[in-house]
């Protein structure tokens, strides 16, 4: 399986990694839609929300607390930010490795940044 996000997590593909721990990695989106646009991903390959299991609940919660920490580090927590998880074709999911978009630093427009 050739997954670009697995390759970034493994250090085999370039990525501007801003956070990593044993469960999750965060890196800057290559096509940012706002001044801050970071993707937070589980280190384990999970294709989408549709592939989550009940035992993944702590992992999914962890993605959100990492997002909150990064929002503080990036200084966008007071102004507010948007967290997005595209799931499947109709949502326009392009990379099938679960990821949480953290977007902020400007007043949001529809649909993303
Ligand atoms: P989506 O699957 O639609 O939620 O979004 C996938 C996101 O991944 C898009 O915002 C892309 O710009 C971003 N992306 C795709 N390839 C890379 C990469 N190699 N490094 C960083 N971001 C990427
Ligand atoms: Zn993957």
Low-confidence stretches: none
- Annotation, overall tally of beta strands: 5
Strand fraction band?
15-25%
Q: Order of strands side by side in the largest beta sheet?
A: 1-2-3-5-4
The N- and C-terminal alpha carbons lie at a distance of: 31 Å
Element-by-element helix/strand order: HEEEHEE
* Cα shape: globular
Helix content: 10-25%
Structural class: alpha+beta
Average pLDDT: 95
Using only CA atoms, what is the Rg? 13 Å
Which ligands occur here?
adenosine monophosphate, zinc ion
Biggest pleated-sheet summary: 5 strands, antiparallel
The total count of helices amounts to 2
Describe the 3D structure.
This protein is α+β, with helices and mostly antiparallel strands. The protein has helices at 4-9, 57-74, and strands spanning 17-20, 24-28, 36-42, 81-84, 100-104. It has a five-stranded antiparallel β-sheet. A hairpin with a 3-residue loop joins β1 and β2. The longest helix has 18 residues, at 57-74. The N and C termini lie far apart (31 Å). 26% of the residues are buried. The model has no long low-confidence stretch (mean pLDDT 95). Bound molecules: adenosine monophosphate and zinc ion (ZN). Adenosine monophosphate (AMP) binds next to loops.
């Amino acid at each position: 399986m050739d997954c670009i996000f697995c390759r970034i997590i493994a250090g085999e593909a370039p990525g501007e990694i801003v956070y990593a721990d044993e469960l999750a990695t965060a890196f800057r989106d290559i096509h940012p839609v706002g001044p801050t646009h970071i993707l937070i991903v589980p280190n384990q390959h999970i294709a989408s929300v549709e592939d989550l299991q009940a035992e993944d609940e702590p992992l999914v919660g962890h993605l959100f607390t990492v997002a909150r920490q990064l929002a503080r580090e990036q200084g966008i927590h007071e102004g507010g930010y948007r967290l997005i998880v595209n799931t499947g074709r109709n949502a326009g999911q392009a990379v099938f490795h679960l990821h949480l978009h953290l977007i902020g630093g400007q007043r949001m427009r529809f649909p993303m940044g």
